Amino acid sequence: MALNAVIGVDIGTSSSKGVLVALDGTLLRSAVRAHTVDRPAPGHVEMAADVWWTEFVSLVRELTADGAADVRAVGVSGMGPCVLLTDADDVPLRPAILYGVDTRATEQITRLEHRLGAEQIRARCGSGLSSQAAGAKIAWVADEEPELFARARRLYMPSSWLVRKLTGSYVLDHHSASQTTPLYDTVARSWYDPWAGLICPDLELPPLRWSGEAAGTVTAEAARLTGLPAGIPVITGTVDAWAEALSVGAHTVGDLMLMYGTTMFLVHTVPDLLTAPALWSTVGALPGTRNLAGGMATSGAVTAWLRDLCGAPDYADLLHEAEKSGTGANGLLMLPYFAGERTPVMDPQARGVIAGLTLSHTRGDLYRAALEATAYGVRHNIEAIEAVGGDIRRVVAVGGGTQGRLWTRIVSDVTGRPQEVRTTSIGASYGGALLAAQLIGDASVDAWNPVQETVVPEPGAAARYEELYRLYRDLYPASADIVHALAAHQTR
């Protein structure tokens, strides 16, 4: 007799991940499809939507190949906010423009702020305009590709694109919509027609639902392509970081989720709307919730770059060498702004800096400096959250970077905060599976994914990191003019 199960699939920046999970939370099988983003011009980061659906089908086929599980529901999530524009027949008109790592819309941000008012945007939308704002990227397409934009009729993100392909439904979750600034009114929790009409008057903006609500059921055609049973429900889904938070239960007031991935993301749940120029205020994935969020433009992307650059066979070797390097990376200090920086710096022209290099430094020192740089960035974001009234009572870590424990220990040492690490750290795909299980029955995160350990700060490292953190904060303003000038000369 086949075991009842759910599937969760997440479309990420560097890979798509899928999990097959029994209804009691047992991870039965997982699969990954690696991919790369396209960078057609400086500051432009894109991906073809065909990749999302092709990898989804491939993942589902692999997860269900032995026929041992009876899939009862499907969960989806993906990187975001992204801008995929299609015509009226759902044919993509261009590759999707990705989230805050794509920094192309600076002129549109300036123009929209001048026309609508920066304070008015933040008051209505929760967040100001930045490289994270999907609405500004839609305005870029209108300005730079007007003939293409004239044919655009629908807006998708990775999760909503999978929903469309699976069910035929055109919907978007409230959280993803709240990152389309300035198109969504985060107070009223609805599209804001006056500004949407100004920026994209011919777009049919999707109806809004909450992430765990059913978007529809698998069609006969989607069942034929994927092997999934026709008629099973598919959740509306959401942005990957919010699905990750759900996978580890970090969605009650006072929780802060740290997502250790290609980028580092922070999601803090707050009781009421909080806004800040250097952070993002969004509605949550669950009804009635609100978040204050931050995101670094790189974290795991820098460690992957170092691994490839240094020819290291795998991360385990680098982690061992970084462990030997010790606190402070033998006097190296890094700014991890290799793709500009999002919160709280909000500077798309920022660049990476490695200070203190000598001929005696090793790749282990460099790797340690990268891990520590991410930790300093996390502390900078935490201080920004607390400065506007955030009340962080619990920190929960999730994502591939929690493996090996060195990175999480460094973050706890730098921030002075314990971090819960739950049994399953796969993240967004597991969170999507949990929402799918909750849609069809009872499933609690504590039963599915109990706390495995708590990483606590080491008192001996605190004083050293306090000194280095102050140097880290001084290094950006001291080098900003130089790296801005260099950024103007970069062609890729």
From TrEMBL:
Superkingdom of the organism of origin: Bacteria
GO MF entry, a single one: kinase activity
Pfam families named among the record's database cross-references: FGGY_C, FGGY_N
Residues annotated as domain Carbohydrate kinase FGGY N-terminal: 6-245
CDD domains associated with the record: ASKHA_NBD_FGGY_RrXK-like
Gene3D superfamilies: 3.30.420.40
Record domain Carbohydrate kinase FGGY C-terminal: where: 257-437
Family: Belongs to the FGGY kinase family.
Protein name: FGGY-family carbohydrate kinase
PROSITE patterns from the UniProt entry: FGGY_KINASES_2
EC number: 2.7.1.-
Keywords: Carbohydrate metabolism, Kinase, Transferase, Xylose metabolism
